[in-house]
TrEMBL record:
This is DNA-binding transcriptional regulator, AcrR family. PROSITE patterns: HTH_TETR_2. Keywords: DNA-binding. One of its GO terms (molecular function) is DNA binding. Pfam families: TetR_C_34, TetR_N. Residues 14-74 form the HTH tetR-type domain. The keyword DNA-binding applies. It comes from the Bacteria. Residues 37-56 bind DNA.
Length: 231
């Protein structure tokens, strides 16, 4: 990178950060997070690897910031989708089913966000400093709080269990995304054995069913019980 000039002003530094983030986002549109490496990222950004590391301490730090950005964008889009679909006068069971459908369909269109959700705990939260980890977790808490408030607005019956339900739904989202993206070897096995193909998973329908089940179970557990559980 013989023509590279170090950014001096805060504006130049912020421009370099945006370049790195936008380049990585473009790569994520073409490949999963697991396949993104610093060498290729640096080449596409037009920087030396050492210069990329001036702005982000690791590949994972870049991806965590992109996860926060993608999650915030989804949180901003979701309210209008839910407001248009959910009848506030409908029974809670119906509202829960529609919520699950909108949730799943909205994420099926956001492949990068789903991929980053699936990689969050097992990959992205590793190889980062405590400062980066804490900064991401604070941002994640803000995003979770926004989703919790939106969910409680449409499903007030969840009450104090809303945040826990939302956290469980998000974890399920990442897991289902992973399982709905089988390896080439597994796809070949499915093609050769129809019995195995029955185990394949279609992301949006599987996520919708899981979200609806989690909400139904949470609502059931939140109901007052006449008798204590246990001996």
């Amino acid at each position: 990178m013989t023509g590279f000039q170090r950014a001096r002003s805060p504006e130049q530094q912020e421009e370099r950060r945006r370049t790195i983030l936008d380049t990585t986002a473009g790569m994520l549109a073409q490949m999963p997070a697991a396949k993104i490496g610093l060498n290729e990222l640096s080449r596409q950004a037009g920087m030396a690897k050492s210069n990329v590391l001036r702005y982000f301490e690791s590949r994972e730090a870049i991806l965590l910031e992109l996860l926060d950005r993608a999650w915030s964008e989804w949180n901003s889009a979701l309210p209008a989708l839910l407001d248009a679909a959910i009848d506030p006068a409908a029974p809670v069971a119906r509202r829960a089913e529609v919520y699950a459908q909108v949730y799943a369909v909205s994420l099926a269109d956001r492949k990068v966000l789903c991929d980053l959700f699936s990689a969050q705990a097992g990959v992205l939260e590793h190889n980062v400093s405590p400062d980066v980890a804490a900064r991401y977790k604070r941002a994640a808490a803000v995003n979770l709080t926004a989703l919790t408030a939106l969910t409680r607005h449409h499903l007030p019956e969840l009450g104090d269990t809303t945040q826990q339900a939302c956290a469980q739904i998000l974890m399920a989202t990442g897991a289902i995304w992973t399982h709905s993206r089988p390896s080439p070897a597994m796809l070949e096995a499915y093609a050769k054995d129809p019995a195995l193909a029955a185990l394949s998973m279609d992301f949006a329908p599987a996520l919708q069913e899981t979200v609806a089940t989690l909400i139904a179970g949470t609502l059931s557990r939140a109901e007052p019980r006449d008798q204590p559980i246990g001996p």
